[in-house]
Specification:
heterotrimer, B: 301 residues, mainly alpha, MetI-like fold, 68% helix, C: 306 residues, MetI-like_sf (chain C)
C-alpha cells in the first residue's frame, strides 16, 4: 500500500461576491501518494486551480475562503494551520509552479536573487552558499551558462527558460510535493515536451510527488500515474491513467477524450462536448453536467449523484453506475 | 501533443461571476456607484450645493453687503452662525451667497477648457501626423508651467479680476483634456466598428462625432468632475492672492484673504470660508472618485 | 545609458525653444506700451523713445528674440522696474529659501505619502485603508492657504511654539513645509496605493508567497520596487505642483522666496521679474521631468536606453 503524502478531504472553497456565494471547490477529495504524479483535469473554471491554491493557502488576494474539509499533509492539517506555520511549508515542503512563466518572475530582480531567497529562508544557507546552490539548480534544470544567467534579469530569458528557472526555484529546497498549475500551457509545443521531461526526471530522481493541474490530456498521458477529473467544482471521476484512457466511465470524461485526436485512428471529425461550462451563478439542479450530457436521464436533472466506487481504485459520480431508484426526496 | 479545446471562449474565471441578468450600461453604472456610500453622499452634497447656488441669495438670512458696525468681528452666535467680519457682515450669509460665484467660475472655466481640449484631442487623435504633433507640442509647453503659475502669468497680462481667472483656468485645463481625449480617441479609432464605418465611406467629421466622441465621454465626465474641485481651489487661491475676485465680493477666497489681518482676534473670519472651500472641493473629489470607479471597466468587484 | 541620457537631453530642446518664444512674447502680450511702462507714466515722449531704443523694442521681433535669448544665456535678465536692480540678483537672493522649502516639503510628503499608501494597499478595505484614503482625499481638497492660516492660528498664535512667518531658523521651515507638502503627500498616498494594489495582483507576488516569504517581505521587497516605477514619475510631476503651491504658501508665511517675489511683481506689474520667474519655473519643471525620466531608467531594468 502506497504511503499517503497529501490527502485533501471534502475540501470546500467558496468565493463571496455581492451577487452571492460561489462554490468554486465543492466537496473535493484528492489523495497524492509519495512519489506519485496525480493529474487534476478539467475545463477552465472547474475549480482545479482553486484547489491547488487552497492547498498552498494562497487565496489571500482572492475573495475565496476555505469553508470546509481538511488538507492533510504529513500529519498536519494545512487548512487549519496558522499563517506562520504555513510559511514554513510553502516553498520548503510544498512548492508550486505556475502557468505564466512570463509574469511569474519579478521583473526588477536578478534570477539568482529570486532563487536564493527561498534557499536562504528554508535551508538557512548564507548568501554565498545560496548563490552556489542557485547556480547548481539552474544547471540541474538544463540552463546553459548558469553562471551568467544567475545575474540576468527575467526579461532577458525566453518563456521556456523562465519556466526552467521557475522549476529550479521550486525544486531548490527539495520539496516533497510539487504543485504544477498548467506548467506548459503558455509554452510552445516543442518546449512543452522538454519541460515535461525535465519535471518527470526530477521527480523520479528526487522522489518528489507532483500534483499536475492541467486541461491538456496529452500532458496527463505523458506524466501522470493517476487522474482526477473535475467538473464544476466537483470530482466526477478518478482512476489510474490507463483506466481513464481505456475505460472512462463518466460521460464527461468520455467527452474529453473524444475531443482529442487519437494517433492511428481514422475518424472523420472530432467530437466536442455540446454547450458550455455552467457559470457559477447559474448552476443547474441535479448533476452539474446533465445539461450537456448525451446520456442524460430523468433523475440527473433532479438529484446530484454521489461519488461512488465502481471498481477497484475507480470512482465515478454518475447515475449510470448508481441505482437510480433511490430518489428519496 | 493534443490540446483540449472545449469552449475556450467561455473562460469565466471562478472569482468573477458573470452577471446573471443583462444590465444596460446605466443600470450597471448605478449598481456600482450606489455601493460607494461616500461618493453617493458627496453626490447629494454636490446637488445641494447647486440648489444653494441658485436660491442662495433668496434664503440667506442677511445680505452680502449688509453692514452692521455695532457687531463687528463677533464669533459664532445664534444670530450669526458663523460670526461677523470686520464690517459686521454676516459670514454665514456671505458664504451661502458666494456659493454661486465659486460654482459658476469653476463650471464655466472647466467647461471652456474641456470643450477646447476635447476638440483638440479629437483632432489630434483622429488625424495624427503633423497636426497631432503640433497640438501635442502646444500641450507640452502649457504643461511646462505649473498650473497656477500659468494662471498668474495670464492674469499678469490681462489684469486681475474674476473674468480673467476664468480664462486663465480654462487655458490650463485645455492640455489635460486634450491628452486624455487624444489617447481615448486613439484607442477607439483602432476598434473594429470605426474601421467598419470608415470602410463604408463615412466622412471624418461624422466618424469623430458619431463614433469616437461617445467612446471618450466617460473619461471626460470623470476628469470634468475632478477638475471642478481643482478649479475651485485655484480660483480661491488667486482671489486669496488678490488676483481674482476683489472685495467686497463674497467670493470665498477673497473673504478668507480679508480675514487674515484678524487672525489673532477673530479666526472665525478665515475659518468658515476656508471650510466652505474645503467641503465643496472634497465633495467634488469624492464624487469624481466614485464616478471613476463606477465607470472604469478595469475595476471589477 | 549615456545615449539615452543624450537623447532625452536633445528631446527637451524643442520644448525649451517654444517655452522661450512663449515667454518672450509674454511681454508683447501685455496691453499697453512696455517702453511707456519702463519709462514711467509721466515720462515725455522722447524719454519713452529712448527707452524703446535702449530695450531694442524698435527692432524687428526676430532680432529682439535673438537678443532676448543671448541675454538669458549670459545671465542678463534685465532690470527690475520696482527696485531698479538686476533681476538676476533679485532672483538669486530668493532662490535658496524656496529651494529648501520645496525640498523639505517633498521630503516629508514622500515619506508620509508612501507610508499611508502602502498601509492602505496592504490593509485594503480595512479601517486603516478607509482612514488613510479619506485623509488623502481631504489632503488634496484642502485649500493650502487656509491650512497654513489654521496651522499658524494653532501653533503660532495659540500655542506659541513656532514662528508665524518669515525665515529665521530651522523652525521657520516646519509650518510652511507641512502646509505645502500636505497636498503632495495626499497625491502620493493615493497613487502609491493604487499602484501597489496593481502590483500585488501580479503573478510574481504569488510566486514570492509560494516561496514562503513573509508578507512584509513580499510587500516591501518584491512589490514596492515594482510599484515605485510609476510613483516616481508621478512624484516628479508633483514638483511642479510644489513650485506652484509655493507661490501661495510663501504669501501666507511671508516667506522671502521666489513665490512671494512673483506675487509682489504681479501687483507692481514688474514685467522683467515676472518674465524671468516664469522662465525659471518652466526650466526647473523641465529639468525635474528629465531627472524623473532618468530615475525611471535606473529603477526599471527592462527599459531600453535607445
Amino acid at each position: 500500500m502506497a504511503e499517503k503524502l497529501l490527502e485533501i478531504k471534502n475540501l470546500q472553497t467558496h468565493f463571496k461576491s455581492d451577487r452571492g456565494v460561489v462554490k468554486a471547490v465543492d466537496d473535493v477529495t484528492i489523495t497524492v501518494n509519495k512519489g506519485e504524479t496525480v493529474g487534476v483535469v478539467g475545463e477552465s473554471g472547474c475549480g482545479k486551480s482553486v484547489t491547488s491554491l487552497s492547498v498552498m493557502r494562497l487565496l489571500k488576494d482572492t475573495p475565496g475562503k476555505i469553508v470546509g474539509g481538511t488538507i492533510e499533509f504529513e500529519g498536519k492539517d494545512l487548512a487549519h494551520l496558522s499563517e506562520k506555520e504555513m510559511r514554513l511549508i510553502r516553498g520548503n515542503d510544498i512548492a508550486m509552479i505556475f502557468q505564466e512563466p512570463m509574469t511569474s518572475l519579478n521583473p526588477v530582480y536578478k534570477i539568482g536573487r529570486q532563487i536564493e531567497e527561498a534557499v536562504m529562508l528554508h535551508l538557512k544557507y548564507d548568501k554565498k552558499q545560496a548563490r552556489e546552490h542557485a547556480i547548481k539548480m539552474l544547471k540541474l534544470v538544463g540552463i546553459p551558462r548558469a553562471e551568467e544567467i544567475v545575474d540576468e534579469f527575467p526579461y532577458q530569458l525566453s518563456g521556456g527558460m523562465r519556466q526552467r528557472v521557475m522549476i529550479a526555484m521550486a525544486m531548490a529546497c527539495n520539496p516533497k510535493l510539487l504543485i504544477a498549475d498548467e506548467p506548459t500551457t503558455a509554452l510552445d509545443v516543442t518546449i512543452q515536451a522538454q519541460i515535461l521531461d525535465l519535471m518527470r526526471n526530477l521527480s523520479k530522481e528526487r522522489g518528489t510527488s507532483i500534483m499536475m493541474i492541467t486541461h491538456d490530456l496529452g500532458v496527463v498521458a505523458e506524466m501522470c500515474d493517476r487522474v482526477v477529473v473535475m467538473y464544476a467544482g466537483k470530482v466526477v471521476e478518478e482512476a489510474d491513467v490507463f483506466t481513464i484512457f481505456e475505460n472512462p466511465k463518466h460521460p464527461y470524461t468520455e467527452g474529453l477524450l473524444n475531443s482529442v485526436p487519437k494517433l492511428g485512428q481514422k475518424i472523420k471529425r472530432l467530437e466536442s462536448i455540446p454547450g458550455n461550462v455552467p457559470t457559477p451563478g447559474n448552476m443547474p439542479q441535479g448533476c452539474k453536467f446533465a445539461p450537456r450530457c448525451g446520456k442524460v436521464m430523468d433523475i440527473c436533472t433532479k438529484q446530484d449523484p454521489e461519488l461512488k466506487m465502481i471498481d477497484k481504485d475507480h470512482t465515478c459520480r454518475c447515475w449510470l453506475y448508481q441505482e437510480s431508484g433511490v430518489l428519496e426526496v | 501533443m493534443a490540446e483540449l479545446k472545449v469552449n475556450e471562449a467561455i473562460q469565466q474565471p471562478v472569482s468573477q461571476p458573470v452577471n446573471i441578468k443583462k444590465n444596460t450600461p446605466i443600470t450597471e453604472f448605478w449598481r456600482k456607484f450606489k455601493r460607494q456610500k461616500l461618493a453617493l453622499g458627496a453626490g447629494v452634497f454636490v446637488v445641494l450645493l447647486f440648489i444653494l447656488g441658485i436660491i442662495g441669495p433668496f434664503i440667506a438670512p442677511y445680505g452680502a453687503a449688509e453692514f452692521d458696525y455695532d457687531h463687528i468681528l463677533e464669533g459664532p452666535s445664534a444670530q450669526h452662525w458663523a460670526g461677523t467680519d470686520a464690517y459686521g457682515r454676516d459670514i454665514f450669509s456671505r458664504i451661502i451667497i458666494g456659493t454661486r460665484i465659486s460654482l459658476f467660475i469653476s463650471i464655466l472655466s472647466v467647461l471652456l477648457g474641456a470643450v477646447g481640449g476635447t476638440v483638440l484631442g479629437l483632432i489630434s487623435g483622429y488625424y495624427g501626423k503633423w497636426i497631432d504633433n503640433l497640438i501635442m507640442r502646444f500641450c507640452d509647453i502649457l504643461f511646462a508651467f505649473p498650473g497656477i503659475l500659468l494662471a498668474i502669468g495670464i492674469i499678469a497680462i490681462l489684469g486681475p479680476g474674476l473674468g480673467n481667472v476664468v480664462i486663465a483656468i480654462s487655458i490650463f485645463s485645455v492640455p489635460m483634456f486634450a491628452r486624455i481625449v487624444r489617447s481615448s480617441t486613439l484607442a477607439v479609432k483602432s476598434t473594429v466598428y470605426v474601421e467598419a464605418t470608415r470602410s463604408i465611406g463615412a466622412k471624418p467629421r461624422r466618424i469623430i462625432w458619431k463614433h469616437i466622441f461617445p467612446g471618450t465621454v466617460s473619461a471626460i465626465i470623470v476628469n470634468f468632475t475632478m477638475r471642478l474641485g481643482t478649479a475651485i481651489l485655484t480660483a480661491a487661491s488667486l482671489s486669496f492672492l488678490g488676483l481674482g475676485a476683489q472685495p467686497p465680493s463674497p467670493e470665498w477666497g477673497a473673504m478668507l484673504s480679508g480675514g487674515r489681518d484678524y487672525l489673532n482676534t477673530a479666526p472665525h473670519v478665515t475659518f468658515f470660508p476656508g471650510l466652505a472651500i474645503f467641503l465643496t472641493v472634497l465633495a467634488f473629489n469624492l464624487f469624481g472618485d466614485g464616478l471613476r470607479d463606477a465607470l472604469d471597466p478595469k475595476i471589477k468587484d | 545609458m549615456l545615449r539615452y541620457f543624450l537623447n532625452r537631453l536633445i528631446g527637451i530642446i524643442p520644448i525649451l525653444f517654444f517655452v522661450s518664444i512663449f515667454i518672450f512674447l509674454f511681454v508683447h502680450m501685455i496691453p499697453g506700451d512696455p517702453a511707456r511702462l519702463v519709462a514711467g507714466q509721466d515720462a515725455s515722449l522722447a524719454d519713452v523713445k529712448a527707452v524703446e531704443r535702449e530695450l531694442g523694442l524698435d527692432k524687428p521681433l526676430t532680432t529682439q528674440y535673438v537678443h532676448f535669448v543671448t541675454n538669458i544665456i549670459q545671465g542678463d535678465l534685465g532690470v527690475s522696474l520696482k527696485t531698479k536692480r538686476p533681476v538676476f540678483d533679485e532672483i538669486a537672493k530668493r532662490f535658496m529659501p524656496t529651494f529648501w522649502l520645496t525640498v523639505w516639503s517633498m521630503g516629508w510628503a514622500v515619506i508620509f505619502g508612501l507610508l499611508i499608501g502602502v498601509i492602505s494597499a496592504t490593509k485594503r478595505n480595512k479601517w486603516q485603508d478607509y482612514v488613510g484614503m479619506f485623509g488623502a482625499v481631504s489632503g488634496i481638497s484642502l485649500p493650502s492657504f487656509w491650512l497654513g492660516l489654521m496651522l499658524i492660528q494653532l501653533f503660532s498664535v495659540n500655542l506659541g511654539w513656532l514662528p508665524t512667518g518669515g525665515l529665521d531658523s530651522w523652525k521657520s521651515y516646519i509650518l510652511p513645509s507641512i502646509t505645502l507638502g500636505a497636498g503632495v503627500a495626499a497625491v502620493i498616498a493615493r497613487f502609491s496605493r493604487s499602484s501597489l494594489m496593481d502590483v500585488l495582483k501580479e503573478d510574481y507576488i504569488r510566486t514570492g508567497r509560494a516561496k514562503g516569504l513573509k508578507e512584509n517581505k513580499v510587500v516591501w521587497g518584491h512589490a514596492l520596487k515594482n510599484s515605485m516605477i510609476p510613483v516616481v514619475t508621478m512624484t516628479g510631476l508633483q514638483f511642479g505642483f510644489l513650485l506652484g503651491g509655493s507661490i501661495v504658501i510663501e504669501t501666507v508665511f511671508s516667506w522671502p522666496g521666489l513665490g512671494r517675489l512673483l506675487i509682489d511683481s504681479v501687483a507692481f506689474r514688474d514685467y522683467p521679474v515676472i518674465q524671468a520667474e516664469m522662465l525659471l519655473f518652466a526650466l526647473e519643471f523641465i529639468l525635474i521631468n528629465l531627472i524623473v525620466d532618468l530615475l525611471y531608467g535606473v529603477l526599471n531594468p527592462q527599459i531600453r536606453y535607445d
